[in-house]
Amino acid sequence: MADTASTLLDVEDLIVEYPGKGFRAKSFRALTDISISIGRGETLGLVGESGSGKTTLGRAVLGLAPVTGGSIEFEGQQIGHASRRQRQKLSRHLQVVFQDPYTSLNPAMEIGDILAEPLGIQGVSPADSRKRVKELLDQVNLPSDAVHRQPREFSGGQRQRVAIARALALSPKLIVCDEPVSALDLTTQATVLDLFLQIQRDTGVSYLFISHDLDVVHHISHRVAVMYRGRIVEQGDAGQVTRRPQHPYTQKLLLASPVPDPDRQQARRDERRRLAEELAQQGDFSPADA
Fold first, then answer.
1. Pair (164, 115) in one structural domain
2. Are 286 and 276 in contact (CB under 8 A)?
3. Which of 96, 210, 212, 258 is 20 to 30 Å from 122 at the Cα level?
4. Mean pLDDT, to the nearest integer, of 156-174?
5. CATH number at residue 49
6. Do residues 162 and 282 share a domain?
7. Is 249 part of a structural domain of the chain?
8. Per residue in 70-109, pLDDT tens?
9. Residue 284 has pLDDT above 90, yes or no
10. Residue 53 predicted with pLDDT over 80
């Protein structure tokens, strides 16, 4: 178990299984023996391709996926089977930013009401809520008149800033960021990533940052964990894992980044196929994943 004095989130040997649908249907194991920790003020990047289980891990931390085995501790408190009432109390300290800025915000509400909603649930007075909403807009570099506008009036990057502001409303200690920049263009991605970094410097918040992109997690993370088929196959310092990976699957992920030279791109494809075949020989991987 991690040192609770410096560790905010500690996941040990986590198993997540979903019951099968239909009579005699087998259950589906989404996560197997997952162990990670996140320190205070630290970012753990969680990277893997679609279906790897990375989003399921984030959902388990948030109480949205069933914990079948192992444990999830937040500040030394077991939260894997927390009740709805306990989860409401946890929401002060544990928040989320979802992938799609177009569907994660209520289109019928004004931005001011979206940001004030979590404050009202926690019993913050209307006067203090208005003050806090102004602070949040300043924090994510949005104009003060945004309080009277609706999400449709903003670009994707601006909407994601609103989602980040909402997650920050209660001054959480940990934010689960589930592919928060994947729906944005490259220029906007860089701006939003820099905003995440600035907020962390200013507030000391920790992130569980989920992404399929090694370059993104390299930019924002202190440490990186690589997931494939519900297991962590490599974990360590961000620079080491994203630039000098040891596991063949992580090496294959690194080669997925496109390059402008057609010959180099073809060489990368060939190397990915070779690595996929090597992984298949280990028993848990398929050449079809190349």
1. yes
2. yes
3. 210
4. 95
5. 3.40.50.300
6. no
7. no
8. 999 999 999 999 998 899 889 899 999 998 888 889 999 9
9. no
10. yes
Pull the structure tokens for residue 98. 């979802």
Query: Does pLDDT of 197 surpass 50?
Result: yes
Residue 202 has pLDDT above 50, yes or no: yes
Total domains in the fold of the chain: 3
C-alpha–C-alpha distance, residues 257 and 144, integer Å: 39
Domain coverage including residue 287 = 258-290
Indicate whether 157 and 182 sit together in one domain. Answer: no
User: What pLDDT score does 23 carry?
Assistant: 73
Predicted confidence at residue 181, as pLDDT, reads 92
| Mean pLDDT (whole number) for 113-136 | 94
Record the pTM.
0.87
